[in-house]
Amino acid sequence: MDTSDQCAVLLVEDEPLLASMMEIYIDDLGYQYVATVDNAASAVKIAQEQAIDLVIMDININGSVDGIELYALISDIQKVQIIYVTSNFDDDTFTRAMSTGPTAFITKPFSEIQFKRSVQLVVARLSENEESSLTSSADQDQYLYIKKKLKLQKVSLDDITDVEADGRYCRIYTDQDLFYIRSTLKDIETKLPTHTFWQSHRKHIVNIKKIQSINLRAESIILEERTVPISRSNMQKFKALYDRL
């Protein structure tokens, strides 16, 4: 992940001095600082207008809506990761916060290194689990439209090297990017033209145009930048394919 371009951070904090410190830390880390607000209404307004990846949320903020309730409101608008910041973690507050599935907790007072390490761990997880979705289109034989955050990104099929299944998700590798999509390999296969994309393995689909060679001994396909497995059952199919190329 290009953190300066893709990790957008919203701070929700009602202590001005602490907020200023966290802004500096975010800037030091090279992430995209969105804004600092101290109440639910302002945070919701920003979430409606801008794409956000991570919210660093004080639980006790100004107004009648606390940080835990605010996270639910933001989640109804867009999917974000949450780090709760608080000085008061009584059992009831902790139980309520845990029920929302936070990525991390930071307890006040905290040091600069504690704050930065916590945020860096969350951003690293974002990079590994960045989720997108596919959208069908009229020109599906040439492009896929992949929803990434609040944008539809037009991806040429010629740029896709391969697709890899990973549990409930799939990774779509392109020449320039990586998309992490909550979808089955079978569903993605239905959106790809069969004359260009072949399933080489139960977990892999490859773009035939990107194949550099097939290692028969190692049962693997050499792409331009990656090596992917090929099952024995598909080996003969690929050998026949290469005979026709």
In short:
This protein has 245 residues and is an alpha/beta fold. The protein folds into two domains: 3-128, 3-Layer(aba) Sandwich (Rossmann fold); 133-244, Beta Barrel (OB fold (Dihydrolipoamide Acetyltransferase, E2P)), CATH 2.40.50.1020. The chain contains eight helices and 16 strands.
What are the SSEs and their pairings?
Layout: H1 3-6, E1 8-12, H2 16-29, E2 32-37, H3 40-49, E3 54-58, H4 67-75, E4 81-86, H5 91-98, E5 104-107, H6 112-128, E6 132-135, E7 143-148, E8 151-156, E9 160-166, E10 169-174, E11 178-181, H7 185-190, E12 197-201, E13 204-207, E14 213-215, E15 220-222, E16 227-229, H8 232-244
Parallel strand pairs: 1-2, 1-3, 3-4, 4-5
Antiparallel strand pairs: 6-7, 7-8, 9-10, 9-13, 10-11, 12-13, 14-15, 15-16
Helix pairs in contact: 2-6, 3-4
Task: Kindly list the characteristics that best describe this protein.
245 residues, alpha/beta, Rossmann fold, OB fold (Dihydrolipoamide Acetyltransferase, E2P), 5-stranded antiparallel beta sheet, 8 helices, 31% strand, disordered N terminus
Describe this structure in words.
This protein has 2 domains: 3-128, Response regulator (Rossmann fold); 133-244, LytTr DNA-binding domain (OB fold (Dihydrolipoamide Acetyltransferase, E2P)), CATH 2.40.50. The chain is elongated and about 70 Å long. It is of the alpha/beta class. The strands form 4 sheets. It has a 5-stranded parallel sheet with strand order 2-1-3-4-5, sandwiched between helices. A 5-stranded antiparallel sheet has the order 11-10-9-13-12. Helix 2 (16-29) crosses helix 6 (112-128) and helix 3 packs parallel to helix 4 (67-75). The two termini are 36 Å apart. The chain has 8 helices and 16 strands.
